């Protein structure tokens, strides 16, 4: 839904998925997707908050860092965004 332009519906669906399975091992992914949906509809403050939560839930999941970084950048929080880019570089280096 988020990638088809129906972000508000996506956010509702993601919230439902999280409510149905709050201990889901993939919770970081769901929260990260919510961060992406918020980014698409330009709700950057919310997107950054969900991005931060996604990074906390799934620190090695690159998409969590990507959505968080994108939202931070749009908010002009460039030092924090740069720190996320550095985290992504460390994750990438550890996978080689």
Which regions are unreliable across 5 or more consecutive residues at pLDDT < 50? none
Quote the beta fraction. Answer: under 5%
**Could you give a short account of the major beta sheet?**
none
H and E string: HHHHH
Structural class: mainly alpha
**What is the CA-CA span between the terminal residues?**
33 Å
Question: Treating each run of at least 4 consecutive H or I residues as one helix, how many helices?
Answer: 5
How many beta-strand elements? 0
Shape: globular
Indicate the radius of gyration in whole angstroms. 13 Å
Average pLDDT number: 91
Helix content: over 70%
How do the helices and strands line up, and which of them pair or pack?
Elements: H1 7-20, H2 27-40, H3 44-57, H4 62-74, H5 78-94
Helix pairs in contact: 1-2, 2-3, 2-4, 3-4, 4-5
What brief labels describe this structure?
5 helices, globular
Q: Can you give a write-up of this model?
A:
The longest helix is centred in the C-terminal third of the chain and has 17 residues, at 78-94. The radius of gyration is 13 Å and the shape is globular. It contains five helices and no strands. By secondary structure, it is mostly helical.
